Amino acid sequence: MDEQTRVSIEFLREALDVLLRHLEEVQGPEVRLEKEYFWSIPEERLYDVYTEPSSFSIGQLTECIANLQGMTADPEGAVSYGLVWIADVLRAVGQTVVR
């Protein structure tokens, strides 16, 4: 693929807003996540779809949430990797709430 996929921040903001409003309508103000640990593929293998990953690590939802809580408590300390943490949490939420 020669061209990079581009996505605007505004589009991401709108999509998240729509999805979070939908989630609140169908689930209420909070989601109970019954799973704690998940498989994580190393970043260098995650987008290499032509090579099957041979090593995995384990991620932990409460660790992701704690990292996000730290950033919300101190927005000046926010890091872009927080998007990975929130993606892990959002994946778990999306797979938990089936509507």
Task: Summarize this entry quickly.
The chain is mainly alpha-helical and 99 residues long. 52% of the residues lie in helices and 8% in strands. It is built from 4 helices and 2 strands.
List keywords for this structure.
mainly alpha, 99 residues, 2 strands, 52% helix
Which helices and strands appear, and what pairs or packs with what?
Elements: H1 9-27, E1 37-40, H2 43-46, E2 57-60, H3 61-73, H4 82-96
Antiparallel strand pairs: 1-2
Helix pairs in contact: 3-4
Please provide a written account of the structure.
- The chain is mainly alpha-helical and 99 residues long.
- A two-stranded antiparallel ribbon has the order 1-2.
- The N and C termini lie far apart (34 Å).
- It is built from 4 helices and 2 strands; from the N terminus they run H-E-H-E-H-H.
- Helix 3 (61-73) crosses helix 4 (82-96).
**DSSP strand content:** 5-15%
Read across the widest sheet, the strand sequence of neighbours is: 1-2
Q: What's the story with the biggest beta sheet?
A: 2 strands, antiparallel
Helix-strand category: mainly alpha
| Secondary-structure element pattern, one letter each | HEHEHH
SS elements, strand count? 2
What's the number of helices? 4
Overall mean pLDDT: 95
Specify the overall morphology.
globular
How far from one another are the termini? 34 Å
Helix content: 40-55%
Radius of gyration: 16 Å
Low-pLDDT runs of 5+ residues are none
Subunit organisation of the chains: single chain
